[in-house]
């Protein structure tokens, strides 16, 4: 399906791996020009070169920690004329309320929660002023399936669900859509690394990590590309009457 995204410009944060990288690839394949952002410049340059080689897309890299509000705001000012914003940067660590100390909690939220907010507070008004634009927030299923062992992530993702819906409540009146997705377990480098450690400890063989995920829908975890395809659809005019909502992308896992 041609999503009609050719000629659009998108900013994707956390775009050097996992869901963010997959989103960048799908948008480039659809004909978008890209701004990609992450802390590590070398990783961004690798992603840029690969995307350019595959799709001939114009890709601009922005290295810096989006946990720093000044950096996040500078990025947003530089990219405030983009048609699409995909907020994706950030991974909140697991742990219960006794394990996650204040410094760790604040550091994680500075990147994911306040990073999303700080970038949106500049790009969203610019979109409203122009009368068009789409923001897609990549959140997490802990927002709808909270666990005491992922308390900081459950609280952070829940707050961003509220943020997404609050913006979406009025955004359509200004020609702007704000939507989100809640991915379930996704086969990213981070998940595989964690599960290999767990498999070695519990099964004696790290290569058996998939067995630990066999209770999920279809006996598997999702892929970054499956999330990226949903993001691209939501960012397109094919989803023109979709606004202010957050979709679970998890094969139905959140219903179990």
Cα end-to-end separation: 31 Å
Low-confidence stretches: none
CATH homologous superfamily annotation: NAD(P)-binding Rossmann-like Domain
Number of domains: 1
| CATH topology heading | Rossmann fold
Question: Treating each run of at least 4 consecutive H or I residues as one helix, how many helices?
Answer: 8
The main sheet comes to: 7 strands, parallel
Report the CATH architecture: 3-Layer(aba) Sandwich
Rg of Cα set: 18 Å
The assigned structural class equals alpha/beta
Regarding quaternary structure, what we see is single chain
How helical, in percent, are the residues? 40-55%
Average pLDDT level: 94
Strand order of the largest sheet: 3-2-1-4-5-6-7
Shape: globular
Helix and strand run: EHEHEHEHHEHEHHE
Give the strand tally: 7
The CATH class, by name, is: Alpha Beta
Residue fraction in strands: 5-15%
Layout of helices and strands, plus pairs?
Blueprint lengths: L8 E5 L4 H12 L3 E6 L2 H15 L3 E5 L5 H10 L5 E4 L14 H10 L1 H18 L2 E6 L12 H21 L4 E8 L5 H14 L21 H12 L10 E4 L7
Parallel strand pairs: 1-2, 1-4, 2-3, 4-5, 5-6, 6-7
How would you describe this structure to a colleague?
The protein has 256 residues and is of the alpha/beta class. The protein has one domain (9-185, 239-248): Rossmann fold, CATH 3.40.50. It has 8 helices and 7 strands; from the N terminus they run βαβαβαβααβαβααβ. The chain has helices at residues 18-29, 41-55, 69-78, 102-111, 113-130, 151-171, 189-202, 224-235, and strands spanning 9-13, 33-38, 59-63, 84-87, 133-138, 176-183, 246-249. The chain has a 7-stranded parallel sheet, with helices on both faces. It is globular, with a radius of gyration of 18 Å. The chain starts with 8 loop residues before the first strand and ends in a 7-residue tail after the last strand. The mean pLDDT is 94.
């Amino acid at each position: 399906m041609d999503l009609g995204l050719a000629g659009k410009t998108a900013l994707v944060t956390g775009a050097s791996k996992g869901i963010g990288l997959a989103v960048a690839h799908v948008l480039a394949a659809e004909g978008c020009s890209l701004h990609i952002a992450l802390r590590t410049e070398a990783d961004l340059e690798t992603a840029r070169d690969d995307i350019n080689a595959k799709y001939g897309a114009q890709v601009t890299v922005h290295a810096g920690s989006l946990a720093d509000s000044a950096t996040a705001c500078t990025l947003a000012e530089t990219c405030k004329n983009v048609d699409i914003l995909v907020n994706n940067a950030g991974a909140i660590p697991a742990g219960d309320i006794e394990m996650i100390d204040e410094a760790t909690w604040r550091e994680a939220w500075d990147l994911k929660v306040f990073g999303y907010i700080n970038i949106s507070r500049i790009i969203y008004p610019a979109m409203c002023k122009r009368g068009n634009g789409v923001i897609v927030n990549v959140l997490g299923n802990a927002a709808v399936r909270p666990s005491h062992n992922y308390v900081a992530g459950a609280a952070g993702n829940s707050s961003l669900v509220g943020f997404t819906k609050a913006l979406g409540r009025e955004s359509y009146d200004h020609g702007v859509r704000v939507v989100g997705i809640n991915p379930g377990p996704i086969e990213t480098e981070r998940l595989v690394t964690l599960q290999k450690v767990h498999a070695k400890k519990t099964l004696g063989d790290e290569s058996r990590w998939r067995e630990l995920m066999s209770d999920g829908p279809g006996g598997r975890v999702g892929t970054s590309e499956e999330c990226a395809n949903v993001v691209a659809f939501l960012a397109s005019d094919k989803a023109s009457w979709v606004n202010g909502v957050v979709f679970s992308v998890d094969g139905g896992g959140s219903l179990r």
